[in-house]
Specification:
about 75% helix; mainly alpha
Length: about 190
Protein backbone atom coordinates (compact mmCIF):
# COMPACT_ATOMS: atom_id res chain seq x y z
CA UNK A 1 0.00 0.00 0.00
CA UNK A 2 2.94 2.33 0.58
CA UNK A 3 2.85 5.06 -2.00
CA UNK A 4 0.03 3.64 -4.14
CA UNK A 5 2.23 4.56 -7.12
CA UNK A 6 1.57 8.22 -6.33
CA UNK A 7 5.23 8.99 -6.97
CA UNK A 8 6.13 7.18 -10.14
CA UNK A 9 9.80 8.07 -10.35
CA UNK A 10 12.65 8.38 -7.90
CA UNK A 11 13.06 12.02 -8.99
CA UNK A 12 9.45 12.75 -8.00
CA UNK A 13 9.96 10.96 -4.69
CA UNK A 14 13.17 12.92 -3.95
CA UNK A 15 11.49 16.22 -4.85
CA UNK A 16 8.49 15.42 -2.63
CA UNK A 17 10.68 14.39 0.32
CA UNK A 18 12.89 17.49 -0.02
CA UNK A 19 9.84 19.77 -0.17
CA UNK A 20 8.23 17.99 2.76
CA UNK A 21 11.34 18.25 4.96
CA UNK A 22 11.74 21.93 4.01
CA UNK A 23 8.09 22.69 4.78
CA UNK A 24 8.25 20.91 8.16
CA UNK A 25 11.37 22.96 9.03
CA UNK A 26 9.73 26.21 7.92
CA UNK A 27 6.60 25.40 9.93
CA UNK A 28 8.75 25.53 13.08
CA UNK A 29 10.70 28.66 12.13
CA UNK A 30 7.53 30.51 11.06
CA UNK A 31 5.05 29.78 13.87
CA UNK A 32 1.93 30.64 11.85
CA UNK A 33 2.49 27.77 9.38
CA UNK A 34 0.61 24.61 10.41
CA UNK A 35 3.10 21.77 10.78
CA UNK A 36 0.61 18.98 10.18
CA UNK A 37 -0.60 20.35 6.85
CA UNK A 38 1.12 17.78 4.62
CA UNK A 39 1.59 14.90 7.06
CA UNK A 40 -1.48 12.97 5.94
CA UNK A 41 -0.37 13.13 2.31
CA UNK A 42 3.21 12.18 3.22
CA UNK A 43 1.95 9.17 5.17
CA UNK A 44 -0.17 8.17 2.18
CA UNK A 45 2.69 8.56 -0.30
CA UNK A 46 5.62 7.27 1.74
CA UNK A 47 4.08 5.10 4.45
CA UNK A 48 4.04 6.18 8.07
CA UNK A 49 7.62 5.11 9.00
CA UNK A 50 9.28 7.15 6.24
CA UNK A 51 6.86 10.06 6.66
CA UNK A 52 7.64 10.11 10.38
CA UNK A 53 11.39 10.01 9.72
CA UNK A 54 11.29 12.89 7.23
CA UNK A 55 8.84 14.93 9.32
CA UNK A 56 11.06 14.57 12.37
CA UNK A 57 14.15 15.56 10.36
CA UNK A 58 12.32 18.70 9.22
CA UNK A 59 11.04 19.48 12.71
CA UNK A 60 14.51 19.11 14.20
CA UNK A 61 16.07 21.30 11.49
CA UNK A 62 13.42 23.92 12.21
CA UNK A 63 13.87 23.70 15.98
CA UNK A 64 17.65 24.06 15.76
CA UNK A 65 17.24 26.95 13.30
CA UNK A 66 14.83 28.75 15.68
CA UNK A 67 17.23 28.10 18.56
CA UNK A 68 20.12 29.52 16.49
CA UNK A 69 18.12 32.60 15.45
CA UNK A 70 17.35 33.33 19.08
CA UNK A 71 20.97 32.75 20.10
CA UNK A 72 22.22 35.11 17.42
CA UNK A 73 19.62 37.90 17.53
CA UNK A 74 18.70 37.47 21.22
CA UNK A 75 15.89 39.38 22.90
CA UNK A 76 14.72 41.71 20.10
CA UNK A 77 13.37 38.76 18.12
CA UNK A 78 12.14 36.50 20.90
CA UNK A 79 10.77 39.16 23.24
CA UNK A 80 7.68 39.25 21.04
CA UNK A 81 6.85 35.63 21.85
CA UNK A 82 8.07 34.80 25.36
CA UNK A 83 8.19 36.34 28.84
CA UNK A 84 11.94 36.28 29.33
CA UNK A 85 12.04 36.88 33.09
CA UNK A 86 10.04 33.74 33.89
CA UNK A 87 12.18 31.70 31.52
CA UNK A 88 15.44 32.87 33.11
CA UNK A 89 14.13 32.28 36.65
CA UNK A 90 13.07 28.74 35.74
CA UNK A 91 16.39 27.91 34.12
CA UNK A 92 18.39 29.28 37.08
CA UNK A 93 16.62 26.83 39.41
CA UNK A 94 17.65 23.76 37.39
CA UNK A 95 20.46 21.62 38.77
CA UNK A 96 23.04 20.85 36.08
CA UNK A 97 22.35 17.11 36.30
CA UNK A 98 18.60 17.54 35.58
CA UNK A 99 18.76 19.97 32.67
CA UNK A 100 18.17 17.44 29.89
CA UNK A 101 15.14 15.83 31.56
CA UNK A 102 13.74 19.19 32.67
CA UNK A 103 13.77 20.33 29.06
CA UNK A 104 12.19 17.02 27.97
CA UNK A 105 9.46 17.64 30.57
CA UNK A 106 8.86 21.07 29.04
CA UNK A 107 8.74 19.64 25.52
CA UNK A 108 6.36 16.72 26.13
CA UNK A 109 3.19 18.60 27.10
CA UNK A 110 3.91 21.68 25.02
CA UNK A 111 3.88 20.55 21.41
CA UNK A 112 1.31 23.26 20.77
CA UNK A 113 3.96 25.84 21.73
CA UNK A 114 6.82 23.86 20.14
CA UNK A 115 7.94 26.73 17.89
CA UNK A 116 7.97 29.32 20.65
CA UNK A 117 9.86 27.08 23.05
CA UNK A 118 12.55 26.56 20.41
CA UNK A 119 13.05 30.33 20.23
CA UNK A 120 12.87 30.74 24.01
CA UNK A 121 15.44 28.02 24.61
CA UNK A 122 17.90 29.93 22.43
CA UNK A 123 17.87 32.71 25.02
CA UNK A 124 18.84 30.44 27.86
CA UNK A 125 22.20 28.97 28.76
CA UNK A 126 21.17 25.46 27.70
CA UNK A 127 23.80 23.95 25.42
CA UNK A 128 22.75 23.03 21.88
CA UNK A 129 23.43 19.35 22.64
CA UNK A 130 20.90 19.29 25.52
CA UNK A 131 18.41 21.35 23.51
CA UNK A 132 18.67 18.95 20.56
CA UNK A 133 18.22 15.73 22.54
CA UNK A 134 15.48 17.10 24.81
CA UNK A 135 13.61 18.36 21.75
CA UNK A 136 13.88 14.97 20.06
CA UNK A 137 12.89 13.00 23.19
CA UNK A 138 10.08 15.43 24.04
CA UNK A 139 8.64 15.57 20.54
CA UNK A 140 9.01 12.00 19.34
CA UNK A 141 6.36 10.24 21.47
CA UNK A 142 3.50 12.37 20.15
CA UNK A 143 4.86 12.28 16.60
CA UNK A 144 5.07 8.48 16.67
CA UNK A 145 1.53 8.20 18.07
CA UNK A 146 0.17 10.54 15.41
CA UNK A 147 1.99 8.91 12.47
CA UNK A 148 1.26 5.33 13.52
CA UNK A 149 -2.43 6.01 14.17
CA UNK A 150 -2.83 7.96 10.93
CA UNK A 151 -0.92 5.34 8.95
CA UNK A 152 -3.03 2.53 10.37
CA UNK A 153 -6.17 4.49 9.60
CA UNK A 154 -5.10 4.98 6.00
CA UNK A 155 -4.11 1.31 5.63
CA UNK A 156 -7.50 0.12 6.88
CA UNK A 157 -9.46 2.62 4.80
CA UNK A 158 -10.70 4.52 7.82
CA UNK A 159 -10.32 8.23 8.34
CA UNK A 160 -6.74 8.09 9.54
CA UNK A 161 -6.44 11.83 9.87
CA UNK A 162 -9.07 11.97 12.58
CA UNK A 163 -7.76 8.92 14.40
CA UNK A 164 -4.22 10.33 14.38
CA UNK A 165 -5.32 13.80 15.42
CA UNK A 166 -7.46 12.39 18.23
CA UNK A 167 -4.57 10.24 19.43
CA UNK A 168 -2.26 13.25 19.39
CA UNK A 169 -4.75 15.41 21.25
CA UNK A 170 -5.43 12.82 23.94
CA UNK A 171 -1.71 12.12 24.44
CA UNK A 172 -0.91 15.83 24.74
CA UNK A 173 -3.70 16.36 27.27
CA UNK A 174 -2.63 13.36 29.36
CA UNK A 175 0.99 14.49 29.47
CA UNK A 176 -0.13 18.02 30.36
CA UNK A 177 -2.22 16.70 33.25
CA UNK A 178 0.66 14.54 34.50
CA UNK A 179 3.10 17.45 34.39
CA UNK A 180 0.69 19.73 36.26
CA UNK A 181 0.15 17.08 38.92
CA UNK A 182 3.88 16.52 39.37
CA UNK A 183 4.41 20.28 39.76
CA UNK A 184 1.72 20.38 42.42
CA UNK A 185 3.54 17.69 44.43
CA UNK A 186 6.98 19.27 44.03
Amino acid sequence: MIGDNLLDSSAERIAFVAGYVLYRALAVVVPVLPGLLFDWQAIRMLGWPLALLFAEVGVMIGAVTSFAIARHYREPVVRRFVRLEKLRDWEAKLPETDRLWAWVAVRLPSNVAFDLISYAAGLTQVPLRIFFWSTLFGNLPLMVAFFVATGKGIDTGRWGWYVGALCLLVAAMLVGVLVKRSKGRG
